[in-house]
């Protein structure tokens, strides 16, 4: 099946989302400079063609996607190309694809300031608690990721004290909630032991509860981030959250 920018945009127009993405190429983070340079030029051409093919700009916002792997000059070129097209919002793609958190933050440090402050800036495919906070500190407005739902289906939940694998045997007789600091439906009504039982008996309700909890946890986290920004206290919030969560460089990959 051949998918052109025009066909991709036509499909998105037909599906009817409020926010839709340009057709781009996402090269591997550690691809060669020459390849990424050609890829950025291709993504810019496709973005222009997609913008021209977009049929519903009044009620479907089409975002351009900044690429460039880890190369600062290529990120700058990609951002320059897309900003000149005046998209209603901008995505940063090609991150969280195997590079370290430090490398991702390095790219965000020089990429986010290239994008208009008065339009949404969206970091694609990032959903761990540390990355959300670090992204917000660097000017990111929007995130998305399968992480909270994917790990929930495997019996892992995010809590204020770090990740918890509720399907493990040690929780078979643990009658506390998933997170004693959480007010979600799952934590208010069910115990770790019961949710573990549901997962081990392949009851879909167990996965629904862990999924609900993880989504609630991240939505609540971002509410706290917004409040911290309003109070000019995001760095303080990050420090206290990381301390409670047990985050450090050694366990960063499993955060």
Topology:
Layout: H1 5-15, E1 19-21, H2 33-53, E2 61-66, H3 72-84, E3 89-92, H4 101-111, E4 121-123, H5 129-137, E5 142-143, H6 147-153, E6 156-159, E7 162-165, H7 185-189, H8 192-200, H9 204-230, H10 234-245
Parallel strand pairs: 1-2, 2-3, 3-4, 4-5
Antiparallel strand pairs: 6-7
Helix pairs in contact: 1-2, 2-3, 5-9, 5-10, 6-9, 8-9, 9-10
Describe this structure in words.
- Strands 1-2-3-4-5 form a five-stranded parallel beta sheet. A two-stranded antiparallel ribbon has the order 6-7.
- By secondary structure, it is an alpha/beta fold.
- The chain has helices spanning 5-15, 33-53, 72-84, 101-111, 129-137, 147-153, 185-189, 192-200, 204-230, 234-245; strands at residues 19-21, 61-66, 89-92, 121-123, 142-143, 156-159, 162-165.
- The protein is built from ten helices and seven strands.
- The model is unreliable at 249-255 (pLDDT under 50).
- Helix 3 links the parallel strand 2 (61-66) and strand 3 (89-92).
Strand content: 5-15%
Shape: globular
Distance between the termini: 38 Å
Uncertain runs are: 249-255
Brief characterization of the structure:
The chain is of the alpha/beta class and 255 residues long.
Which characteristics define this entry?
alpha/beta; five-stranded parallel beta sheet
């Amino acid at each position: 099946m051949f998918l052109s920018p025009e066909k991709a945009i036509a499909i998105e127009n037909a599906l009817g989302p409020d926010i839709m993405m340009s057709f781009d190429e996402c090269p591997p983070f550690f691809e060669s400079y020459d390849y990424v340079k050609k890829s950025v030029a291709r993504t810019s051409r496709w973005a222009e063609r997609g913008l021209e093919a977009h049929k519903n700009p009044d009620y479907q916002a089409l975002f351009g996607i900044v690429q460039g792997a880890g190369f600062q000059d290529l990120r700058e070129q990609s951002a320059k190309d897309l900003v000149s097209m005046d998209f209603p919002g901008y995505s940063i793609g090609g991150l969280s694809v195997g590079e370290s958190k430090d490398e991702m933050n390095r790219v965000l440090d020089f990429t986010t300031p290239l994008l208009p402050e008065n339009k949404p800036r969206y970091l694609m495919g990032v959903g761990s608690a540390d990355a959300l906070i670090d992204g917000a500190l660097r000017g990111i407005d929007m995130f998305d990721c399968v992480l909270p739902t994917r790990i929930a289906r495997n019996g892992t939940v995010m809590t204020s004290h770090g990740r918890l694998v509720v399907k493990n045997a040690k929780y078979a007789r643990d009658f506390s909630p998933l997170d004693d600091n959480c007010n979600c439906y799952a934590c208010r009504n069910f115990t770790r032991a019961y949710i573990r039982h549901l997962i081990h008996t392949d009851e879909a309700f167990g996965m629904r509860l862990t999924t609900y909890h993880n989504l609630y946890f991240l939505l609540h986290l971002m509410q706290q981030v917004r409040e911290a920004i309003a109070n000019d206290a995001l760095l303080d919030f990050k420090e206290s959250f990381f301390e409670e969560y047990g985050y450090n460089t050694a366990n960063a990959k499993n955060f």
